[in-house]
Amino acid sequence: MRIDYEPSFVEQTIFYAGRQDPKLEAELHQATDRLYGLTNPNEREESFQAVYGGLFRRLGYDGVITRLLAERPLIESRVQRCIVRQAVSAKKEAAELFVRDTGDPAQPQQRSLFIHAYHESLLNPELFRRRMRREFLHVADMLDESFGYRKDTLLGNQPRRNLIRDRYRVLWDIYVEGRLSREGHADDKMMLLLSCQFEKVFLKYSACLFPSSFERVYRADKLNHDQLLEWATSPDLLFERDPAAPRGTAPGPGETCPACNFSTFDWFAADEYTPALIAVVQKAFPKWQPRQGICRQCADIYAGTGRFSDRQPATDLTEVDS
Ligand SMILES: [Zn+2]
Predict the structure, then answer these.
(1) Of 262, 261, 264, 233, whose CA–CA distance to 250 is shortest?
(2) What is the 3-state secondary structure (H, E, C) of 24-70?
(3) Comparison of pLDDT for 233 and 290, the residue scoring more
(4) Closest CA to 202 of 223, 243, 174
(5) How far is ligand 1, taken at its centre, from the CA of residue 81, in Å?
(6) What is the pLDDT of residue 317?
(7) What is the distance in A from the centroid of ligand 1 to the CA of 264?
């Protein structure tokens, strides 16, 4: 795979390196001062680039990305070209895969990897390496046929689609982080961040199930796109394994109410169920269980239209909800 560095990125990196090292700065001045006298602008530009490029390689800055990419042979074998560009800040560092159909049967797709790197990062690359290892493992997944990545058309209204996307992203990040940790690149800070994000996107699920469900994704050696998307769409399948799951847990925000089939953010709270309400809902939907939840609007309709009059306090939910 060919790796091209944008000239402005190389120049910025060398300028920055020169500011940290007076000897290098002096050398840079010596090499470039005479170039200002060149009258042909193209020749001048090329000469500057040759000086910066030479120093960039001599100082070994190109090796940072080369070695990181070598950790993912799938990227090296499937991607034809890699372009390194300047990122506006270290926080914006990322890798993006672009796939273009060529119409050529010999090589039907042209794949390019764009790496957005901040010029200061190559001098002290510890954080950069961590970021890029994550980015490259995501890219490797996308290139791996057994992962089966594709752009799906999600169903439901906009808030629901956003929620599924957020969940998918968090689950994929956890899957990536777990494999990186087993490769010897564990990162406690990232783990903490991911577990916060995990709780946020599965807000309505019981806190006592978070650790085991998180571990299930983190410890997995082989997951794929369909599995991650299924968990993002139907979190019950991710949270189901624990037999200690509390009864009557409402589904997550934006999930579909089983009674009206509308996406809802306002679930009837589990502790508000009365046996009578459960009975009247089950009369309309014989297979319905309180743990599937019901939106507040539906619950109010069932509770309020006088379809049942023997409303009782919620004394014995467990008997009904089995
Ligand atoms: Zn409803």
Answers:
(1) 264
(2) HHHHHHHHHHHHHHCCCHHHHHHHHHHHHHHHHHHCCHHHHHHHHHH
(3) 233
(4) 174
(5) 51
(6) 32
(7) 7
